[in-house]
Design goal:
- By secondary structure, the protein is of the alpha/beta class.
- Helices cover about 40% and strands about 15% of the residues.
- It is built from 6 helices and 4 strands, in the order ααββαβαβαα.
- The strands form 2 sheets. A two-stranded parallel ribbon has the order 1-2. Strands 3-4 form a two-stranded parallel sheet.
- β3, α4 and β4 form a beta-alpha-beta unit.
- The longest helix is centred in the first third of the chain and has 16 residues, at about 10-25.
- The model has no long low-confidence stretch (mean pLDDT about 85).
């Protein structure tokens, strides 16, 4: 088992139970210390362009950096699904951000995200945000720099 912040017997027992459950049901399992959930999903190929990925991580919107629609599924959602075998998603309104030009030296995607938060305020709450732009613009934003745009907005 990898590193955990809470090393109490009760917490370590919980992680052991999760690992045992995953093994019993042939479910992929990544132990504590392996990494951050929303990054693991991309690194291990669970999220990819043109798909939808659901995860128990509030940063599931991170998947948008590779063109994947990400949606969090929190504990209460999961409990409801286990109890009823059903779920649903509301299709949100889409706010489109169209980029033009290229970033000046020293300006990062995180800077864009901070500026957009100031500009948007709460106007895009509960929206899907689609980032588009001219080919030269999008080529100037490497994939790994697109993640902050998706993870740091409102």
């Amino acid at each position: 088992m990898g590193a955990t912040q809470n090393t109490s017997d009760a917490n370590l027992k919980k992680y052991q139970q999760i690992e045992t459950f995953a093994e019993m049901h042939s479910i992929d399992h990544f132990p504590p210390g392996r990494g951050i959930g929303h990054q693991i999903m991309v690194e291990e190929g669970y999220a990819w362009p043109g798909t939808m990925c659901v995860a128990s991580d509030s940063h599931s919107n991170h998947y948008g950096g590779i063109g994947c629609l990400g949606s969090p599924l929190v504990r209460t959602d999961a409990a409801s699904i286990w109890a009823t075998s059903r779920t649903w998603w509301q299709i949100p309104p889409v706010a489109r951000v169209n980029f033009a030009g290229t970033l000046p030296p020293g300006v990062t995607a995180k800077d864009i995200a901070v500026a957009l938060n100031i500009f948007f305020k709460s106007d895009v709450l509960n929206h899907a945000i689609e980032f588009t732009g001219y080919e030269e613009t999008m080529a100037s934003l490497p994939v790994d720099s697109r993640y902050p745009l998706n993870s740091k907005l409102v």
